[in-house]
Structures are given as structure tokens and as C-alpha cells.
Amino acid sequence: MAKKSRAEIRRGVHSRIRKKVSGTSERPRLAVFRSINHIYAQVIDDVNGKTLASASSLEKSLKVKSGGTVDGAVVIGKAIAERAISAGVNTVVFDRGGYIYHGRVKALLDATREGGLNKDEGSTKKGGKKAKGEVKPEVEAEVAEAKPKKAKAEKSSSKKTDEAPKEETKDLETDENKDE
């Protein structure tokens, strides 16, 4: 069996994502494709089979130096957000196209949020980015109450067993020194 290329693996991941993600006329899909040198974004209504807005690093009007950089992805993200809002779209479903949510793909999505798409999505950390491992305050309080009680009991029992042998060995060593 031949080894799959990275492109084939990405296509498989994208097809699994597409089974779960589809755009409607109320909340269309924002699809991203990236190549080595360029990045492309489309807002698609899958129910009607129509592209509502698109932006690409190939467009001369956007004056992107290189679509292969995070800066280029930010420009495309702001452009697609502006075009989608002018088409009457305020919320979208993000389709990362089988790419990991990192680098240019993440920069494009963050730029769309800054541009006005999916305003309620995300958190209010510096720069509007979601904090890693962020938890709701109610859930955090419940977890804080439940876990430390068990953990403290286990720690105190393990400390007692560890401390006793150490004290005995110290006593033996001092007794031996006295005999000499």
C-alpha cells in the first residue's frame, strides 16, 4: 500500500469536515483554501449552491504583497468580512478546509471577526482572541470546590507516610555517630 501524500490526507480531513459543516442562507459557510503562495476565501450558501462573497490574494485591488504570509491572510480576512457584510451576511460557519487552525488560517478567521463577522463568537481577551483553556466562571467555581478536597486528602496521607521513614533514618544516623 502506497503512502498518502499530505494533500491526500488533507482532502480526506476536509471531506470529513464537510459531512458536518454546511452553510445555509442564514449562516453561510466561510471556506478557506491556501496554497504555498496564495490564500482564498469564499462565503458559500450550500442550500442554494451560490457563492455570496469571495476574496483572494490574487486580486490586484487588494494589493497583497504575498498571500503566503500571515499579513496577507489578515488583509484577505478583512476583505471577505467587508464583502460578506455588504452582501447581508453577519454570521458564518467556518470551514478550515482540512488545514489545522494555525498560522494563516487562524489569522484569516481572526481578521474576519475584527471585520465584523461573528461578533458574538470569541472572548474578550487582549486583541479579542479567546484565551487558551478559558472556562466559564460558574463551571470554574464548581471544579474548584470539588477537586481540591480530594487532592488535599491524598496529599496529606502521602506526606505522612513519606515523612516517617525519613525521620527514623535521621535518628539512626545520629545514634551511630554518638557510638563512635
In short:
The protein is of the alpha+beta class and 180 residues long. The chain has four helices and four strands; from the N terminus they run αβββαβαα.
Supply the helix-strand structural class: alpha+beta
Biggest sheet features: 4 strands, mixed
Which term fits the overall shape? Answer: globular
Summed over residues and divided by their number, the pLDDT gives a mean of 75
- Fraction of residues in β-strands: 5-15%
**What's the alpha carbon Rg, rounded to whole Å?**
28 Å
Number of helices: 4
| Distance between the ends | 75 Å
Helix % is 40-55%
Number of strands: 4
* Order of strands, widest sheet: 3-2-1-4
Topology pattern, helix = H, strand = E? HEEEHEHH
